[in-house]
Write a structure and sequence with these properties.
- The chain is of the alpha+beta class.
- A 9-stranded mixed β-sheet has the order 16-39-38-37-17-31-36-35-32, with helices on both faces.
- Strand 24 and strand 25 (about 745-750) form a beta hairpin.
- The longest helix is centred in the C-terminal third of the chain and has 39 residues, at about 1090-1130.
- Pfam families: Cation_ATPase (PF13246), PhoLip_ATPase_C (PF16212), PhoLip_ATPase_N (PF16209).
- It catalyses: ATP + H2O + phospholipidSide 1 = ADP + phosphate + phospholipidSide 2; a beta-D-glucosyl-(1<->1')-N-acylsphing-4-enine(out) + ATP + H2O = a beta-D-glucosyl-(1<->1')-N-acylsphing-4-enine(in) + ADP + phosphate + H(+).
């Protein structure tokens, strides 16, 4: 049907008056016609003048305002390194805390330790970090220098040629010439490509990780250049948007000397960091340089997230600060009270130089500060360093787990965020994509419906049931796979283009400099054998067994096409053949698939624009079939081919093929090249088939050599697996895509002839429209046809209304076709197939001309460009004629049902957020055990907020009848526990919820989030269909913020990035949809089934180890510091210590530092086999059983008790004796070390040789260091020195008695608690691994 845009013309005029461009004099803000000068506003937009002779002065003035291409990622210079690094380090409050203590200790009145000793730990920490930062920054400097000094060809207007310069010399407005395999130095607008079609191919793996090639097109008006681009002839000004970080968005226009505009977008922008592929020469002008390029603006550095344990730990550190403040306050008050007991000033109270004594209040304040210095290690600053080391060890074991390695893709797990590994053990909600995450993302064509007739493809379904057998018999299947007619080839050298027999120029060779053919290496360490060189090209995706019934329809379609070529009216029996032909033409044309060959998989097959009229090729077809009189062809059509017969054999059984020697000459329709480097069409030139005149006999025609099909097999490189599946399906019915350029698409028909369609416009797929359209001119009819494919929920609403038909028979037929197609779509969805609708539309020349004018105005607009382009697409994509629909299967990944079942047993709620049709998603949900046949499933599909509110109320009321009201959220130790629905009487059925995107809009807009969340908490599974990327991220944020739950998002595509970034943990699957999800994630895996072990095993271990290590660190520091605090009660709160200060430093630095690290890295509270067999053990992490407010204060109480025992038993033992202070302090220090290490041993769940060696080694190191230090330290701490103290203690039996008795008494409560109140994992551990103690 023709498009009528008269009704929209006035609306367009209003939009133009409101700010859209009309004519250059009216709408261009940069032009002042009356002065004939140009006035630019660089503050609002970027204006680029070319750096050539004509514009050099303007370029020189404006380019100073823009960033140069020199990059600098370093943070320091030689002069700023020391002050800036120190400033950065003192931004950490821990370093400021220690600096404050150092300053206090340098005050003579407050000095507790030697000044240098107090400063030494802080200086060591600052120096180590400074060295690390300096080395990292020096590496960045070397990398920057390497990048800045890379060579590139820059146009020099004085020399009128390209000169080799460095990247750092590139400026905005420079002309850059690049060759194949060169990296693009800046963001460049493409003005010339050596490709005849004006296309340049990019590899963007360095930018977004995607390995498939991208096409960029020369700006309109520059693609038909016959010779090399001449920068001096470029007299245009470029106006575009300001620099931003949107990789896929770019808009601007080029202003010509005649004040006309040409719009351009991201399809013409070459981004910095990408690599030129398969293009000999590309020339462009620099738009953004250096730090203003999109790649640099997106380089925000490593992502940082704070784990839940870290947030909990920071709160507990403030509790420790409160304890420290209280202890220091007690010390200050006690010091004042103790000094008040003296009637005269005691001899140790020394006056100042004037003989004045400190007031009691001031003395108490000084003592308060002194106590802070003395008890400083109560704050476990070393805990942060220990946590980082432990997490590195945990990540090491994650990387080396073979169970998380996928042999097919040669990929193991990637840990991109090192600081949240423990959060893997506390997940409560998982939000998962469906396609490519739960499924393989290998799209297999299964079924289709054309004009209301369904073709089930049963033979293809049977073949797919045994894919392994198919792969093992690939050679036999290859013979069956390609359904194509034997076609004619050109005879003799008269058909060759160009002179001689020179070989065509390969796409990866340069015309100026010989460059070897490029074979692109796969990134991410993928093996060459494990994965095909072209995505979506496995045998299960490429091979399609045709349906017998559809084969006959395709034969009729071929006859219909031949009837069109002869200009004869079609037969009534071929009435539906046109729709079949259009259906397969739409599958072949309406996509962005790049055609290459198996021998040169990165060499694009193209056909240069032809200057001949299309009528020539029609004459050839007409002559050939007129001579054949269609006798044998018609006879072949009337026969029914068996299921294993090639369609080409049935159609051309009487046309002999040539032998292999004859096939080596000339071009091949399936990817042959002519001598000029262009693709050679297989349509026959006039007189090429037969050397004789028009009176040639039928025998001569049959003896003519046929076109060889033995040339390189075509490969299709698609951006999505859906496109590849549809193109492979069309090829199975001999509608073969053989060439694609931005201007033309060539399709080989079943009879072997090739038709070239002129591409007038392409409307790319986007998530808003959910469809794609291609406007072409049909070579046989000359009509302008719009082919559209997209989601059925969108296409069905854009179809022409049957009520508008004047013919009632046509109206009934259209309604019948739509109803049948809808039933088939529902059938496909119930079978779990992905559905797409195919439609077409015929435009008149006038309507298309007016629409194209609107489109050009929208493309040239800077303001509201996206909205204008969307509106132009909506004007075109309406009143469509339905052709049919397809059903594509996306199989479940291996192990998905078991993984989902295990995660559900672990107490994790799984939500699947997908953009698929509801029926398809529900079917997949049942297949993967997300939903069960016994579940009560509520489906909510409404756009009305009032209706949605009432449905939610009714569903909640019904659910509460079975499950009862939810219990209020329990809070244990500050952690919000998920309130499970209580069971009432008989077992209530499980509840599932299915909701679509329109309903989600009603929920968010109607403020119904609370009711929605309340209902979901009763559901064991939630399925959101037809959801957009924005809705996915909004759902994740809603659950994370409202329920305060730990969330995890997992996906594989670019549409999952926002959802991944919104969750506490984002996991990307390195599948077939590029690497954007992986690059935005915290962890990357290759299969969904790996999630089971990642969470249930490694997540549990990481959380359990780190949580118990943090609690142990708090206990250890408080226990040891309290020994000094208790001593203050017996030294008049003077700030003295009974332990040598070197021993105090060594205690945390050497004696007790290594055991917690080994504990945090190697300890396993439960074996892997048990965790996998009993997924409910994962709930301990969800409930924060190892580390919460209760466990923290229990550990604090235990630390106070143990410090009391460790201090007062030695005190009572040595009471009234004449030992000195260090002789008294040495047993206390030894006892406390033994108690702390034994406490660590009691906390260990797994004993290995390493555990034993570390504990014993730490204890022995204490004695070795103490003996050596006491032997050589004669005057280290005058007047009291630790000389020979340890040696004397080792000869005293009392020392041994105290050292054995005191730890036993101190650890007795902890032992009793372990015996009478064991943790929930001990019995499981003993049952599952009775010999664990031996390991």
């Amino acid at each position: 049907m023709a498009l009528s845009v008269d009704s929209s013309w006035h609306r367009w005029q209003r939009r133009v008056r409101d700010g859209c461009p009309q004519s250059p004099s009216e709408a261009t803000p940069l032009l002042l016609a009356e002065k004939e000068t140009r006035n630019y506003n660089p503050a609002q937009q970027r204006v680029v003048f070319p750096n050539n002779h004509a514009f050099h002065q303007d370029w020189a003035k404006l380019s100073r305002r823009y960033s140069s291409n020199r990059i600098c990622t370093t943070k320091y210079t030689l002069f700023t390194f020391l002050p800036r690094n120190l400033l950065e380090q003192f931004h950490r409050w821990a370093n400021l805390y220690f600096l404050f203590l150092v300053i206090l200790n340098w005050i003579p009145t407050l000095e507790v330790f030697h000044r240098e000793i107090t400063m030494l730990p802080l200086a060591i920490v600052l120096f180590i970090i400074m060295v690390k930062d300096g080395m990292e920054d020096f590496r960045r400097y070397r990398f920057d220098r390497q990048i800045n000094c890379s060579n590139i060809q820059i146009y020099e207007w004085k020399e009128q040629s390209y000169v080799q310069k460095c990247w750092k010399d590139v400026h905005v407005g420079d002309f850059i010439q690049m060759q194949c395999n060169e990296i693009i130095p800046a963001d460049i607008l493409l003005l010339f490509s050596s490709d005849p079609s004006g296309v340049c191919h990019l590899e963007t793996a360095n930018l977004d990780g995607e390995t498939n090639l991208k096409q960029r097109r020369v700006v309109k008006g520059f693609s038909q250049q016959e010779v090399q681009f001449q920068p001096e002839h470029f007299h245009n000004t470029i106006v575009c948007e300001k620099p931003n970080n949107h990789l896929n968005k770019f808009k601007g226009y080029m202003e010509h000397p005649d004040q006309t505009r040409t719009g351009f977008g991201s399809e013409s922008l070459l981004l910095r960091g990408c690599t030129i592929r398969n293009t000999e020469v590309a020339v462009g002008i620099v738009i953004y340089a250096g730090h203003e390029t999109k790649a640099m603006l997106n380089n925000s550095g490593p992502r940082y997230k704070r784990s839940k344990i870290e947030r909990r730990m920071n709160r507990d550190i403030f509790s420790c600060i409160g304890i420290l403040f209280l202890m220091c306050l007690i010390g200050a008050v006690g010091h004042g009270l103790w000094n008040g007991t003296f009637t005269e000033h005691p001899p140790f109270d020394v006056p100042d130089a004037k003989g004045n004594y400190l007031p009691l209040a001031l003395g108490g304040f000084y003592m308060f500060l002194t106590m802070i210095i003395l008890l400083q290690i109560l704050i476990p600053i070393s805990l942060y360093v220990s946590i980082e080391l432990v997490k590195l060890g945990q990540v090491f074991f994650l990387h080396n787990d073979l169970d998380l390695y996928d042999e097919e893709t040669d990929l193991s797990i990637q840990c991109r965020a090192l600081n949240i590994t423990e959060d893997l053990g506390q997940i409560q909600y998982i939000f998962s994509d469906k396609t490519g995450t739960l499924t393989e993302n290998k799209m297999v064509f299964r079924r289709c419906t054309i004009m209301g007739h369904e073709y089930s493809h049963q033979e293809n379904a049977k073949r797919l049931e045994t894919p392994k057998e198919l792969d093992s018999d690939s050679e036999e299947w290859t013979q069956y796979r390609c359904l194509s007619f034997p076609a004619r080839r050109d005879q003799g050298p008269a058909t060759m283009r160009g002179q001689g027999g020179s070989q065509p120029l390969r796409r990866s060779q340069s015309a100026r400099v010989p460059i070897q053919g490029h074979s692109r290496q796969r990134s991410m360490g993928r093996s060459e054998i494990s994965q095909p060189s072209v995505a979506f090209s496995s045998s299960i995706e490429k091979d399609v067994t045709p349906d017998k019934n559809l084969l006959s329809k395709v034969r009729d379609a071929a006859l219909w096409l031949e009837t069109l070529s002869e200009g004869r009216p079609p037969k009534p029996s071929l009435a539906t053949a046109s729709s079949v032909a259009d259906f397969f033409l739409a599958l072949t044309i309406c996509n962005s698939v790049m055609v290459s060959t198996t021998t040169e998989p990165r060499q694009r097959v193209t056909m240069p624009p032809s200057t001949k009229a299309l009528g020539t090729s029609l004459e050839k077809i007409q002559q050939l079939f007129h001579r054949l009189k269609l006798s044998s062809l018609s006879q072949s059509f009337s026969s029914t081919a068996p299921s294993d017969m090639d369609l080409g054999e049935s159609l051309g059984a009487n046309i002999p093929t040539t032998d292999s020697e004859e096939r080596e000459d000339g071009s091949v329709c399936s990817g042959g090249y002519s001598t000029d480097g262009g693709y050679k069409s297989s349509t026959w030139e006039q007189g090429d088939i037969l050397g004789a005149g028009p009176r040639a006999s039928l025998e001569e025609v049959l003896q003519a050599p046929a076109l060889s099909l033995a040339g390189p097999e075509l490969c299709y490189e698609a951006e999505s697996p859906d496109e590849a599946a549809l193109v492979h399906a069309a090829r199975a019915y001999s509608f073969t895509l053989v060439s694609r350029t931005p201007e033309q698409v060539t399709v080989r028909l079943p009879q072997g002839t090739c038709l070239t369609f002129d591409v007038l416009c392409t409307l790319e797929f986007d998530s808003v429209r959910k469809r794609m359209s291609v406007v072409v001119r049909h070579p046989l009819t000359g009509e302008i046809v719009v082919y559209t494919k997209g989601a059925d929920c969108v296409i069905m609403d854009l179809l022409e209304d049957p009520a508008c038909m004047s013919d009632t028979d046509v109206e009934k037929k259209m309604r019948k076709i739509r109803a049948r197609t809808q039933r088939h779509l529902d059938l496909y969805a119930r079978d779990g197939l992905r559905t797409l609708c195919i439609a077409k539309k015929v435009l008149s020349e006038e309507d298309f001309r007016r629409w194209a004018s609107f489109r050009r105005q929208a493309e040239a607009s800077l303001n509201n460009r996206d909205e204008l382009l969307l509106e132009t697409a909506q004007h075109l994509e309406n009143q469509l004629t339905l052709l049919g629909a397809t059903g594509i299967e996306d199989r479940l990944q291996e192990g998905v049902p078991d993984t989902i079942a295990a995660l559900r047993e672990a107490g994790i709620q799984l939500w699947v957020l997908t953009g698929d049709k509801q029926e398809t998603a529900v079917n997949i949900a049942y297949a993967c055990r997300l939903l069960d046949q016994t579940d009560t499933v509520y489906s909510i599909n409404t756009e009305s907020q009032e209706t949605c509110d009432s449905i939610l109320n009714l569903a909640l009321e019904e659910v509460k009848q079975f499950h009862g009201p939810l219990k209020p959220d329990g809070k244990l130790s500050g952690f919000r526990l998920p309130s499970a629905p209580p069971a009432s009487g008989a077992a209530a059925p499980d509840v599932g919820l299915v909701i679509d995107g329109k309903t989600l809009n009603a929920i968010f807009q109607g403020k119904l989030e609370e009711k929605f969340l309340e209902l979901t908490r009763y559901c064991r599974s939630v399925l959101c269909c037809r959801s957009t990327p924005l809705q996915k991220s909004m759902l994740v944020k809603l659950v994370r913020e409202r329920l305060r739950a730990m969330t995890l998002s997992i996906g594989d595509g670019a549409n999952d990035v926002s959802m991944i970034q919104a969750a506490d943990i984002g996991i990307g699957i390195s599948g077939q949809e590029g690497m954007q999800a992986v690059m935005s994630s915290d962890f990357a895996i290759s299969r969904f089934r790996h999630l089971k072990k990642l969470l249930l095993v490694h997540g549990h271990w990481c959380y359990s180890r780190l949580a118990r290590m943090v609690v142990y660190y708090f206990y250890k520091n408080v226990c040891y510091v309290n020994l000094l605090f208790w001593y203050q009660f017996f030294c008049g709160f003077s700030g003295s210590t009974m332990i040598d200060y070197w021993q105090l430093i060594f205690f945390n630095l050497f004696f007790t530092s290594l055991p917690p690290l080994v504990f945090g890295v190697l300890d396993k509270d439960i074996s892997m086999e048990t965790l996998l067999a009993l997924p409910e053990l994962y709930k301990s992490g969800q409930n924060s059983e190892c580390y919460n407010l209760l466990t923290f204060w229990i550990s604090m109480a235990d630390a106070f008790y143990q410090s009391l025992v460790c201090f007062f038993i030695p005190y009572l033992t040595y009471k009234d004796s004449d030992i000195d202070v260090f002789t008294f302090g040495t047993p206390i220090n030894t006892i406390s070390l033994a108690t702390i290490l034994l406490h660590q041993a009691m906390e260990m769940k797994t004993w290995t040789t390493i555990h034993g060696l570390v504990l014993a080694g730490s204890f022995l190191m204490y004695f070795v260091v103490s003996l050596a230090y006491n032997a050589i330290c004669v005057t280290c701490n005058s007047p009291t020195n630790p000389y020979w103290v340890m040696e004397g203690q080792l000869s005293d039996p009392t020392f041994y008695l105290v050292c054995f008795l005191t730890p036993a008494v101190a650890l007795l409560p902890r032992f009793e608690q372990r015996v009478h109140f064991p943790d929930s994992t001990r019995d499981i551990r003993e049952v599952s691994n009775p010999k664990s103690s031996e390991n």
